[in-house]
């Protein structure tokens, strides 16, 4: 089977790249995937809203994020730059600045309410 990129599937013109747009993706943690954390054609930031000082930290290629798939599919569909596929499988807005909002632990209903709430408040104020 030959898969198409989400951009091609949605018929997004090549000149619409998301440049100048901010995309905020909220999850408990993020996977250290080059298509997401690469600053190729954009800036990528990590914001840990579950900490006392949730400021955007520019992600570098040496970033050591969590290992797992949390947040990866949504982030790739929204703004993956296709680095590993020579830009064949780019997201909807591959040049949009990515703000990976790490909400922290989401194991209990209370943590989900508190931590996702804090993340949404941060995005509402700064994103």
Commentary on this structure:
The longest helix has 18 residues. 33% of the residues are buried. With 127 residues, the chain is α/β, with parallel strands linked by helices. The chain contains 4 helices and 4 strands. The chain is globular.
* Strand count: 4
Q: Outline, from the CA principal axes? A: globular
State the domain count: 1
What number is the mean pLDDT? 86
Quick recap of the structure?
With 127 residues, this protein is an alpha/beta fold. The chain contains 4 helices and 4 strands.
Provide key terms for this protein.
127 residues, 4 helices, globular
Topology:
Blueprint: H1 6-9, E1 22-27, H2 34-37, E2 44-48, E3 57-58, H3 72-79, E4 97-102, H4 109-126
Parallel strand pairs: 1-4, 2-4
Antiparallel strand pairs: 2-3
């Amino acid at each position: 089977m030959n898969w198409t990129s989400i951009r091609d599937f949605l018929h997004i013109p090549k000149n619409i790249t998301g440049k100048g747009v901010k995309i905020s993706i909220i999850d408990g943690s993020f996977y250290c995937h080059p298509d997401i954390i690469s600053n190729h054609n954009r800036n990528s930031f990590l914001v840990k809203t579950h900490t006392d000082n949730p400021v955007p930290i520019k992600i570098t290629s040496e970033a050591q994020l969590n290992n797992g798939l949390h947040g990866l599919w949504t982030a790739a569909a929204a703004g993956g730059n296709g680095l590993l596929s020579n830009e064949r499988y780019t997201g909807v807005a591959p040049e949009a600045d990515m703000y990976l909002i790490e909400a922290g632990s989401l194991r209990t209903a209370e943590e989900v309410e508190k931590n996702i709430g804090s993340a949404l408040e941060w995005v509402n104020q700064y994103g």
